[in-house]
Each structure stands twice: as structure tokens, then as C-alpha cells.
Amino acid sequence: MADNTANALRRIFNAVETIFDGGGLKQEQRFTRSALTTSGALTLGAVYALCQNIAQDLEAQPRLTMVAAPEGTDRFGAARRWELFFHLPRQRATLECAWMIFEDDQQEARIDCVVRPFPPADSPLRKLVEQGKLLRRQLQGMWREELRKHPALPKHFYNSDAALNKFVQQGLDPAKEEFSLTAKYDNRAALWVLQTRDKTYQVPFELQM
User: Is residue 122 in some structural domain?
Assistant: First the structure.
């Protein structure tokens, strides 16, 4: 009986918080945007501008947390595929933007986007909130912890062409080696990380003013 009463009280409390909170994405969203380009492969700076506009359509102050060029770049630091990951703090959601241009250049470049609520719509945690076994504010606390664990990358950064030049200075031969390229926080430092088959290179991501 005591458990049932406690669950009922939590359900009431959660319902009240929902009214005043109002924010938070409820369901996963998927959409695609065309991204016209006349230059084929692009550097991160160009793609970031496109994806940042999409993120700002969803939330005024999105936070870029990670970048990846899983297929690497050409010798000019331009890639045919970039993946950018954002946090949308007020929406309590993540946004993944995958910009790509195809090998034959006959199709328009596009950005495939996925917006996921935190926690996911089918998460057992959401069920516990509905049942009154978990307070809604506890989910909000988990989201704050998620934001803390994944800080935003600096807004002023070395573009991928400049980063690649630094990797070449370290001994990379982009014409001969296959590699992937990411930008992320590692040990509290924002880094460009380039991974070949047998070696890892790192340079700072944040632009030194």
C-alpha cells in the first residue's frame, strides 16, 4: 500500500513538472536536407556552417561535441563524408548530422539528420517515470551529467586543412596511408585525432588566437 501511494504521489509530481517544464524532445526524428555544393569534397569548416544552421533551427545554442571523417580526407583536408554530433541542452536531445557527397558527383550532396531524445523514447527509464517509480527530475539530473561528460568543442578551431598540414609535419603521407579523422575531447583537451592502420596522431583542435 505504501509503495502504491508513493508511486501515485510521484506520478502527480511528475505531471506537474511536465506542465511547468514543457521542454524535452519526446520522439526520435529523422530528416534529410539537400546541401548544394560545387566543390565536391569539403573541409570541416564548410560542413560545420551547414550543420550548425540545422542545429540552430532546433535550438538556439546547440553544442558540437564530436566530429568524424570516417573515410579520411584528401591531401587538402577535404572529405566526402563528415559526421557531426551535437547536444541540444534545452531539448534534452542529441543531433547527428551526416553530410555526404557521392563518388560520381551526379547526385546532390545531402545531410541526413537524426534527433534522439535523452533518454531514448523506448528507454525503461521513461516507463519508470510513467509508473511513478522514478521522478522526472531524476532524468533531468542524468541529462545534466551527460552534458558534463561531453563538453562542447571550441567554436574557433583549426579547420581540417590546417590540421592535416600539422599531421604531415608529424610524418603522415596522406597520399599513401588510409586514415580516419575525428575531433573530440580526450583527457580534457579538445583534439584532432588521426588514426592510420598502425599509428595515432594528435594536434590541438582549438585555434590559438
Answer: yes
Phi and psi at 202, nearest 5°, equal: -140, 140
Q: Give the model confidence (pLDDT) of 56-71 as tens digits.
A: 999 999 999 999 999 9
User: Does residue 111 belong to any structural domain of this protein?
Assistant: yes
CB count, 10 Å around CB of 34?
10
CA distance 58 to 94: 11
Q: What's the pTM? A: 0.85
Residue 75 lies in a domain: yes
Measured CA to CA in angstroms, residue 108 lies from 31, 72, 178 at distances of 15, 20, 26
Q: How many domains does the chain have?
A: 1
**Domain that residue 82 falls in:** 2-153
- CA–centroid distance for 86 within its chain: 3
Has residue 202 been placed in a domain?
A: no
Whether the ω angle into residue 62 lies within 30 degrees of 0, i.e. cis, is: no
